[in-house]
Design goal:
4 helices; 8-stranded antiparallel β-barrel
């Protein structure tokens, strides 16, 4: 029943109460002439972390599609392991702008492209970071169950799995200091 509930929520685009995710470091830029990547949906994501007693605090995110339409969300995730609790709400563009005044000063804005694609009936998100860690590529897959097998695509050069490694959480990536 839980699997079905999470599947229905995912289909409707609603966040599941528990996120089960595995993450992989991709060694280099993939070949986007590959048929699967050529058909991927590309989104531009800008996200910032807010001041909070919780570490990491809530984040705000602007997700823009190729047709330039945007969705704004405020999200709080708890935990870095395979399963995390997540609460997410859609906010207005004006609330997104208003909340920017409460950005955690120890973090930087993350800007990245997200390439979403299907491979062997699995949904993947390939993140291409521009700020603050230009050149970083991370592959994520959300699972219905922690024991679900993952069939990684041969057209990506996977360096290693980084699930649970705090250095590869978006929050830690946002803490990278400027070199100027």
């Amino acid at each position: 029943v839980d699997r079905l509930f999470r599947a229905v929520l995912r289909f409707l685009g609603e966040p599941a109460p528990i996120e089960i995710e595995r993450k992989f470091l991709v060694a280099r830029k993939p070949n986007f002439r590959n048929a699967i990547l050529r058909q991927s949906e590309r989104l531009f994501i800008e996200q910032m972390y807010l001041n909070s007693v919780d570490i990491p605090g809530p984040r705000i995110r602007k997700r823009t599609s190729r047709d330039s339409s945007s969705i704004y969300t405020k999200t709080l995730k708890k935990g870095f392991d395979l399963s995390r609790q997540e609460t997410e709400e859609i906010i207005s563009p004006s609330e997104y702008i208003y909340l920017q005044q409460f950005i955690n000063p120890d973090t930087r804005t993350i800007r990245k492209y997200r390439h979403c694609f299907l491979y062997k009936n699995q949904y993947f998100e390939l993140d291409q970071f521009f700020e603050p860690n230009k050149g970083l590529w991370l592959l994520e897959i959300e699972l219905m169950d922690e024991n679900d097998p993952v069939d990684l695509s041969p057209f990506l050069d996977i360096e290693r799995e980084v699930t649970g490694d705090p250095a590869y959480s978006n929050y830690e990536i946002s803490k990278i200091k400027r070199s100027d």
